[in-house]
Amino acid sequence: MSASTDNSSRCLFFPALGSLYAALNTASETILRAVAGIFLTIHGSHKITDPFGAAEMVEGLGFYPGAFWSLLLACTEFFGGILIAIGLLTRPAAFAGMFVLLVTVWFHWVTMGQGYSGAEKSLLWAAILFFFVIRGGNRQSIDARIGRAF
After folding, report:
1. In terms of residue numbers, what domain contains 98?
2. Which residues cross the membrane (predicted)?
C-alpha cells in the first residue's frame, strides 16, 4: 500500500500533513532499518572479537555444541546487522536476528524468571526485525538496487 493511499484512506486532523507523511514514508523506513542494523552490529561487535566467548551461556540454554552456536550468534548479530543496515539479504538477516532475539526473550522471561520487564527490549527489537522480515529492505536498499530479494 503506498503512502498516498494510506493517507487518503483516513481522515487526517491536519490534511496538509498528508503530503509530508507521504514524502517521508520511505525515508523513515530506511532510517529505521539502518539504525536497527547499526545497533545490532554494535551489540554484536564485542561478540565477534571473541566468537566463542558465549559458548557456556548458549549451552546453558540447551544449544549444543556451544562453540558452534556461540560463533553463529556472533556472526548473526555482527554481520547480520551490517546486512540489515545496508539492505542486502534483508529478510534472511532480519529473520536470523529476530530468532536470536526471541531466544533472548525466552532466556530473560522464562529461564531468568524476569518476566516482561526482563524481556521488554528483546521483544521490541524482535518486533522491529519482524517488520523487515515481512517488508524487506525497501527501494532504498542494495536488494532493490540489484533487483533481487528474498
Report:
1. 32-146
2. 67-86, 93-110, 122-138
Domain assignment of residue 72, yes or no: yes
Per-residue pLDDT for the chain (150 aa), expressed as one digit of tens each? Answer: 454 445 454 788 999 899 999 899 999 999 999 999 999 999 999 999 999 999 999 998 889 999 999 999 999 999 999 999 999 999 999 999 999 999 999 999 998 999 999 999 999 999 999 999 999 999 999 999 999 888
Neighbours of 18 (CB within 10 A): 16
Closest C-alpha to 37, from 95, 96, 80:
80
CA distance 133 to 100: 14
Number of domains within the chain: 1
Cell of 84: 540489515
Which grid coordinates are listed for 3?
Answer: 503512502
Looking at the chain, the number of H-run helices and the number of E-run strands are 7, 0
Cα separation, 141 vs 129, whole angstroms: 15
Question: Nearest CA to 137 among 63, 73, 83?
Answer: 83
**What residue type is 70 in one-letter code?**
S
Largest Cα–Cα distance in the chain? Answer: 58
